[in-house]
């Protein structure tokens, strides 16, 4: 966000930066792109998980009220600057948080009218219109996580009990059966939360991600041999039989269809290779796109797509991936072999 944009949010009643740095950010807020914007960070403070159900309900009510007030402030600012991309995005996200889906769709269509190539608006407008995209747009994902990179670790690990990297590491350990992988690739490595979990499990670890800012954070850990800003399917397709371990912690939530990524993973693996990953689980058939812009998959779709790609399912386990609005997000961690 540049200085002019910051001033816009400030005019709209943004909280002081001090409040923003200490407030937790729910994962749906962050994945809807609220990260990096001071005002929404502050209204997320009430969403911290509460042990007592009464406290939890009161916190949720407080949060909804604060979000509604924030929305009203942003809408007043938008009335004064109707073509502001920043304010339209902010209003759309707040409307989504408040389940005002029709209003959010109108807002994203307005943004698309002003900027027909706007990746985030196109992705969310499609989902709100009942269309299920096949995957999240690369430009949208990169911008989303660039904006979130500075807050990612603190938000996920401190507030949201994020466990996907630990689940993936444990499933990888089991799938390797005592072997040490020679060359592993962390797909959508983000800030590198998975890397410290792989100690003793891999000789060489590389990582790729669409977001340059996330890659910068991963580099600070000094645990990766090589890091690249790249898209998963294209990167794997260009490296046939290169790896003996592929890992993806909370990344397939940005893919609807899994056939392309599974085919590319299979081609990039050596004969004894393993692919270990998580998905968000949903009970219906196939896959669905949520208002967060992420996807959830059914177990049967996962099994079927993996088999069609030529994989054997080595393990599959229900897990909680993190908290969302104080509740565990159900997922599956799985290991595939050839
Ligand atoms: C929720 S984060 C998880 C990061 C990391 N795996 C972890 O567990 O901390 C998802 C990451 O996947 C990346 N990502 C999503 N789709 C991608 C794609 N098609 N190619 C490369 N990276 C992608 C995002 O940029 C983001 O950093």
What does this 3D model show about the protein?
With 338 residues, this protein is α/β, with parallel strands linked by helices. It has two domains: 3-131, Serine Threonine Protein Phosphatase 5, Tetratricopeptide repeat, CATH 1.25.40; 159-337, Vaccinia Virus protein VP39 (Rossmann fold, 3-Layer(aba) Sandwich). The chain contains 14 helices and nine strands. The protein has helices at 3-11, 17-22, 27-31, 38-43, 53-80, 85-97, 101-114, 119-128, 138-159, 164-176, 212-220, 232-237, 259-268, 299-308; strands at 181-187, 202-209, 226-229, 243-248, 269-280, 287-289, 295-297, 312-324, 327-337. Strands 3-2-1-4-5-9-8 form a seven-stranded mixed β-sheet. A two-stranded antiparallel sheet has the order 6-7. The longest helix has 28 residues, at 53-80. The model is unreliable at 1-27 and 31-47 (pLDDT under 50). It binds S-adenosylmethionine. The site of S-adenosylmethionine (SAM) has 20 residues, from helix 9, helix 10 and strand 2. S-adenosylmethionine is lined by residues 141, 145, 164-165, 188-190, 193-194, 208-211, 214, 231-232, 249-251, 254.
